[in-house]
């Protein structure tokens, strides 16, 4: 009897020690939910903004030719009959210019502005001749060019934005006196407004978030018009056939508002990666 009681007590003790061990194996810690991180609200980028600009340029001009009126008598030497002749050759040298303007960046890829450029005087040389004489002609030309321009900004890479553009407007061309330095022959120069248009290509570079350096090429065509007036000592009036101008330009633009495309792009929200558990 005593022996049986002892075995029962021993079995109970073993059972009491085993149950906590099984309970420990079955314990599961409470699940904690990860905090929810909300993505920042999307705000559309506003590229609209006013800007001002200033430019310096050097141009090479090509004069298409010069025609002028001559006078002579008819077959019976009764009346004076006007005629027409052309310069044997006419050349216009290069010159510098400066200008400025105001514009508006409409979108990421489109902007427009109004510009005014003053062309400093460039030297003109020409030559005329007839059956009995020849003459060397000299003068100077300056101009005020007003254009309304539109540009397509192709895209921005590492702060550099290539672009193309076109402009339309007018130019006030002013010719100084046309004269022959070897004779008393001279003709007063003419000044008049003419139609003009331009084609541009270049690239801009971000110096700061608002300040942009702009460099490029511009072709400008100015319609022909009166070059000089009639004078009793010479023939006239004279007309140039128009000017083709090739400019290398550089300048600065400063934009007051909107996104210039120069600021560092905003990185889209990306959720944190899931943790990787290893056994």
Automatic annotation (TrEMBL):
InterPro entries: Beta-barrel_OMP (IPR027385), OMP/PagP_B-barrel (IPR011250)
Domain Outer membrane protein beta-barrel positions: 37-256
Signal sequence, renumbered to the chain: 1-23
Keywords: Signal
Signal found in the keyword field: yes
Source organism superkingdom: Bacteria
Protein name: Porin family protein
Species of origin: Ollibium composti
């Amino acid at each position: 009897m005593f022996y049986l009681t002892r075995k029962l007590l021993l079995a109970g003790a073993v059972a009491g020690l085993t149950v906590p061990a099984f309970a420990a194996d079955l314990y599961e810690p409470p699940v904690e939910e990860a905090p929810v991180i909300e993505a920042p609200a999307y705000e559309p980028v506003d590229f609209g903004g006013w800007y001002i600009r200033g430019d310096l340029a050097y141009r090479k001009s090509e004069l298409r030719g010069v025609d002028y009126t001559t006078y002579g008598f008819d077959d019976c030497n009764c009346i004076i009959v006007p005629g027409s002749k052309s310069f044997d050759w006419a050349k216009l040298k290069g010159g510098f210019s400066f200008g400025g303007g105001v514009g508006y960046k409409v979108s990421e890829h489109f902007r427009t502005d109004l510009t005014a450029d003053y062309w400093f005087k460039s030297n003109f040389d020409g030559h005329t001749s007839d059956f009995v004489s020849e003459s060397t002609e000299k003068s100077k030309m300056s101009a005020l060019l007003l254009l309304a321009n539109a540009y397509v900004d192709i895209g921005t890479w590492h702060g550099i934005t290539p672009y193309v553009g076109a402009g339309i407007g007018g130019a006030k061309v002013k010719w100084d006196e046309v004269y022959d330095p070897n004779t008393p022959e001279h003709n007063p120069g003419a000044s008049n407004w003419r139609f003009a248009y331009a084609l541009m290509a270049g690239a801009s570079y971000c110096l700061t978030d608002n300040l942009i350096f702009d460099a490029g090429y511009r072709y400008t065509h100015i319609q022909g018009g009166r070059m000089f007036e009639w004078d009793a000592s010479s023939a006239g009036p004279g007309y140039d056939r128009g000017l083709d101008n090739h400019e290398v330009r550089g300048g600065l633009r400063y934009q007051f508002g909107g996104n210039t495309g120069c600021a560092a792009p905003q990185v889209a929200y990306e959720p944190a990666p899931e943790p990787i558990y290893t056994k």
